[in-house]
Amino acid sequence: MEDMFMDASSKNQGVKVLVAGSILQLFLGIIYVWSSFVQHVDKHWADWDIKAIKNTSSYMLAFFVIGIIVCGRLIGKIGARIPVLLGGVLMSAGMFVTSMLGENTSEKSIWVTYGIIGGFGVGLAYNSITACAQKWFPQKRGLATGITVSAFGFGTAIFAPLVDTLVGKFELLVTFRILAVGFLAATLVLFSFIKLPPETSQAAAATSLQKQYTTGEMLKSPMFYLLPFSMMFLTLANFVINPQLKILAGGMDMGANFGTYTVMMTGFANAIGRIAVPSLGEKIGSAKAVLVIMAGTVAGSVLLCVNNPIVFVIAIALIVFCFGGSSGVYPVVTGTVFGVKNIGSNYGFVMIGFMIASLLIAPWVREHSQNTQFLIQAGFALAGMLLAVMLIKIENKIKAETA
């Protein structure tokens, strides 16, 4: 890694960003653990509609994207630390306020507290950490991004069993408060380590051969629209299954703990995908890596139609691995096509496809029977493969021009 920095001081600071950012991302990964809360929330607020409870994750993911977009605009003006601090505080506040909801409140209240406030906070912190990682490691953007976002995915493996343990020991509302205080403490300890590299560093020099698109220029480019639409087609499968994962696992009749173990497994699959796929992209090209995980999502979605516990676990692991891989490789594709100077802002708009899939399309897909859901998400991913082929051509052209 030493050759990626101008001096030892820069190298040490870059490593600090990676370490502190990865620990924070571990806590921010609570966004993917909603499936562990669904049944506990349904039991605590018995008059709430289960479909509405599941849709909390859609609001959280949608405002996660909005937080990413807002963070992208803030980083260039106020730096990276304040968005991380603000994001961690909002995430903790959203969870703490959730613990204060009364028995007679509407399920829409948790959409606001856990979903909107918490999701927005996660997006602010997540984007700041990811953008910093790419800029400190300009020659290894895939690996640096993969390390930080893998921790985000791995959080599921830790918090899925922790949620069940805490709820069993303290009950649901106290669990929300414990997690809120823990997340706030981690934020206050670590946020100060997150900062952008100086413009005079090698990170700035590495961008000199390529056009660095502003967000406005990017939005005017026809190339841009391939990114959010392909992301939408790819990530839909995960958004369909994630909030109902424990319920789907319960249908396998494999015991009370099978659902929790399955959710834990998704944390490992998510984390591995976030490192493996961008690393694969550094070898074969990031756009080709997108094509690979599109194909994997198609295969996993079709396999879900097979009513077998072993096949079920394999299919879920494959889908979540590919979803995690998208989180690691799409920031790299965005940087490759549009430059890394404005990556924080630009990537936020790419993730509009992520938001559309989670908030608008996934709830509609979940209205169908199980096998129909799985075939619909497979069809979307199949369409995404066509867009990935177009991305490969664009990436190859840009690499040839900047070689």
Describe this protein's structure.
- With 403 residues, the protein is mostly helical.
- The chain has one domain (12-402): MFS general substrate transporter like domains (Growth Hormone, Chain: A, Up-down Bundle), CATH 1.20.1250.20.
- It contains 18 helices and no strands.
- The chain starts with 7 loop residues before the first helix and ends with a helix.
- Residues 1-6 and 200-205 have low confidence and may be disordered.
Give the tally of structural domains.
1
Going by CATH, what is the homologous superfamily?
MFS general substrate transporter like domains
At CATH level 2, the architecture is Up-down Bundle
| Elements, N to C (H/E) | HHHHHHHHHHHHHHHHHH
Mean pLDDT over all positions: 86
Short description:
The protein is mainly α. Helices cover 79% and strands 0% of the residues. The radius of gyration is 20 Å and the shape is globular.
